[in-house]
Amino acid sequence: LKTKGVKYSRKYYSDGSIKYNKIKKLKEESKQSDWFKIKLIDELLDSKKESDHQQAYDFAMDCYASGNKCVAGKIASMYLNGLGVKKDLKQARKYLKEAADGGSEWARIELVSVLMNSDDDVDKVLAFDLCKSYIDSGTIKLYGKLAIMYKNGIGVDKSINECLKYLHLAEKNGNEWAKKELKNLNVNSAL
């Protein structure tokens, strides 16, 4: 893999850690490439060693502090999964929101999921509102989540008709779960 004329190599050791050759030079080069920053973080997170996860977190936070907001989704993922940092849903939500506002489809879906699963009714209403807003702006992968909200009354009053509407939309867009859910509900015809 080459980036900006800089070649890097990695070696996995038996303990799962990653050894980067010329890491200082690579970090310097990564200042010129957002793609490379993300790739470096991903490589460190792929390791099985906690110290590599910590290094990924530290590097991501340094990038973020220096104004590179493209790493917000990676930071959110680390907080969600406890990689390199203690699990913290409050911090995960903060960075998910920023990544979602930046257009990350993954972050939008994850943020809605986190809010849906909250014990706080205000969060559930926010999940519903964000889900509708994100769908309106093109994140159609959220049709299934919206169907679940209508089915179970998460952040909105229960409505089987709205649930079915969004299940059919999700199915039309290739969502296999929605197809199975429609079969489970014995509703295979269009509304």
Describe this structure in words.
With 191 residues, the chain is mainly α. It is built from 10 helices and 4 strands; from the N terminus they run ββββαααααααααα. The protein has a two-stranded antiparallel sheet with strand order 1-2. The chain has a two-stranded antiparallel ribbon with strand order 3-4. A hairpin with a 2-residue loop joins strand 1 (2-3) and strand 2 (6-7). Residues 1-9 and 187-191 have low confidence and may be disordered.
- Secondary-structure-derived class: mainly alpha
Q: How large is the share of residues in beta strands?
A: 5-15%
Overall mean pLDDT stands at: 85
**Total count of helical runs of at least 4 residues:** 10
Strands ordered across the widest β-sheet: 1-2
Helix percentage: 55-70%
Query: N-to-C terminal Cα separation, in Å?
Result: 51 Å
Main beta sheet: strand number and arrangement?
Answer: 2 strands, antiparallel
Write the H/E string, N to C.
Answer: EEEEHHHHHHHHHH
In the predicted model, the low-confidence regions spanning at least 5 consecutive residues are 1-9, 187-191
Tell how many strands the DSSP assignment holds.
4
User: In angstroms, what is the radius of gyration?
Assistant: 20 Å
**What form results from the Cα inertia axes?**
elongated
Oligomeric category: single chain
